[in-house]
């Protein structure tokens, strides 16, 4: 499932009516490992993780690009660019040259029911990229190509957007997630577009997809692992200090948990955008780079800044690398913390299900896992706090793990720079 309920709601919009009261509460201290319900207990971690079928596949260098099929594109400095347009398309009243790349068929090793694609690209001038997916069933039936995103780094020429629906055969699109009844394999297609006759080109650094087939619940709480006792110095920003900012991009406050969380991780890497990028933000706005991030991640079809791959595409251009995946447990998340990589995770929870949270319930919210206590409880930066001071919190391990795994299937933004390589070891999901 993407979120609780049949339709994904804009991240952070579905906060409870008790929001203002909850935000005024004093942050609580970290829960005691022995007393809190859902605290870490001995469990069959490996068996629980095996039940969560997740596979991530990425293309990000010349050899990997050449495993796919080229139509008017070439590889330049490890990135995919237009060589000679193979067609033209009219879009939003303008004509564009087009070229495309198609991945080989990918078999994740199970019949996938969900897929989320993510990418990193530069789009100079009036250029953009479109990402599509199609699948094949175990009987050999092939679906149509479904659009997962039409994306540009800025909104100067093209409004980035998703296309929900497209439920015409074997799958449907739910904002940024491709949903199926169970398909054996998939293909991605990247279309690169530039204003007709232009000499510049979009340049795609990476594209990837996480395929999954998950059990309905979160399972037993994982045991603490390699991240216990480590907390990373992630700066603290509050989404609530932006209430009423720029209604055309969501209006701040409850709507901006995703760009605020993404900005906190960029701040950790000292990779926030330069001042000239957010010079358009009104004087006196706290943390103006958050306003900028909301604008640059805004999905004009979804009407929100919580689109998962739009956030990682924005972050990748600043930090170096970023993608969306799903993790199987907080024990897996600890491997990233031990490697110096904070994580943005997507959660959902009902009333009474996350002690000490600044909101009482939500159908969709994002926050940063910045570390773990020695007892294994997650140290988070929760942007729903009313001020920066209240952002840092410690949540109960079992409660947060359930809110994450049950709420979004363990959906995670992995953002990192060259100084912080991904954790080593078996990593089918990163």
Polypeptide structure, described:
The protein has two domains: 19-51 and 221-416, Cathepsin B, Chain A (Alpha-Beta Complex); 53-213, Sandwich (Jelly Rolls). The protein is globular and about 55 Å long. The model is unreliable at 1-7 and 13-43 (pLDDT under 50). Strands 1, 3, 4, 7, 10, 11 and 13 form a seven-stranded antiparallel sheet that branches. The protein has 430 residues and is α+β, with helices and mostly antiparallel strands. The chain has eight helices and 19 strands. Helix 4 (257-268) packs across helix 5 (288-297) and helix 4 (257-268) runs parallel beside helix 6. Strand 5 and strand 6 form a beta hairpin. The chain starts with 18 loop residues before the first helix and ends in a 14-residue tail after the last strand.
Features:
7-stranded antiparallel β-sheet, 16% helix, 430 residues, 6-stranded antiparallel β-sheet, alpha+beta, disordered N terminus, Jelly Rolls, 2 domains, Cathepsin B, Chain A
The main sheet comes to:
7 strands, antiparallel
* Shape assignment: globular
Strand content: 25-35%
Point out poorly predicted stretches. Answer: 1-7, 13-43
- Please write the CATH class name of the largest domain: Alpha Beta
* Rg: 21 Å
Please report the total strand number as a whole number: 19
Which architecture name of the largest domain does CATH use?
Alpha-Beta Complex
* Ends apart, CA distance between termini: 20 Å
| Helix-strand topology string | HHEHEEEEEEEEEEEEHHHEHEEEEHE
Q: What is the CATH homologous superfamily assignment of the largest domain?
A: Cysteine proteinases
Percent of residues in helices comes to 10-25%
Count of the domains = 2
CATH topology of the largest domain: Cathepsin B, Chain A
Nearest-integer average pLDDT = 91
Number of helices: 8
Structural classification: alpha+beta
């Amino acid at each position: 499932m993407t979120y609780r309920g049949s339709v994904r709601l804009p991240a952070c919009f579905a906060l409870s009516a008790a929001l203002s009261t909850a935000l005024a509460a004093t942050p609580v201290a970290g829960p005691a490992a022995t007393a809190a319900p859902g605290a870490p207990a001995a469990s069959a971690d490996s068996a629980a993780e095996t039940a969560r079928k997740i596979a991530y596949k990425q293309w990000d260098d010349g050899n990997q690009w050449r495993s796919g099929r080229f139509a008017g594109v070439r590889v330049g400095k490890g990135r995919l660019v237009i060589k000679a347009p193979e067609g033209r398309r009219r879009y939003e009243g303008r004509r564009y040259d087009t070229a495309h790349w198609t991945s080989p068929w990918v078999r994740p090793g199970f019949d996938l029911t969900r897929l989320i694609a993510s990418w990193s690209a530069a789009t100079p001038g009036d250029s953009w990229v479109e990402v599509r997916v199609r699948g094949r069933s175990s009987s050999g039936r092939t679906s149509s190509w479904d659009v997962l995103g039409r994306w540009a780094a800025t909104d100067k020429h093209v409004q980035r957007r998703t296309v929900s629906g497209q439920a015409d055969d074997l799958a449907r699109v739910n904002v940024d997630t491709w949903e199926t009844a169970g398909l054996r394999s998939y293909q991605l297609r990247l279309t690169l577009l530039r204003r007709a006759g232009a000499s510049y080109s979009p340049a795609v650094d990476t594209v990837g997809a996480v395929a999954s087939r998950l059990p309905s619940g979160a399972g037993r709480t994982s045991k603490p692992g390699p991240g216990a006792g480590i907390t990373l110095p992630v700066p603290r920003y509050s989404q609530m200090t932006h209430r009423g900012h720029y209604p055309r991009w969501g209006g701040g406050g409850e709507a901006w948990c995703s760009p605020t969380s993404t900005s906190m991780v960029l701040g950790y890497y000292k990779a926030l955008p330069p001042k000239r990028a957010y010079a358009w933000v009104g004087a006196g706005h706290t943390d103006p780079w958050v306003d900028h991030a909301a604008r640059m991640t805004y999905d004009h079809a979804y009407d929100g800044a919580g689109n998962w791959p739009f956030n990682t595409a924005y972050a990748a251009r600043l930090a170096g690398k970023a993608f969306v995946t799903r993790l199987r447990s907080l024990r897996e998340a600890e491997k990233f913390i031990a490697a110096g990589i904070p994580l943005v995770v997507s959660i959902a929870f009902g009333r009474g299900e996350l002690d000490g949270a600044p909101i009482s319930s939500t159908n969709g919210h994002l926050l940063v896992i910045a570390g773990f206590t020695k007892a294994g409880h997650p140290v988070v930066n929760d942007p729903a706090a009313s001020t920066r001071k209240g952002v840092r919190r410690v949540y109960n391990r079992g409660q947060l793990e359930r809110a994450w795994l049950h709420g979004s299937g363990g959906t995670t933004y992995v953002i990192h720079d060259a100084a912080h390589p991904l954790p080593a070891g078996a990593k089918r999901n990163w």
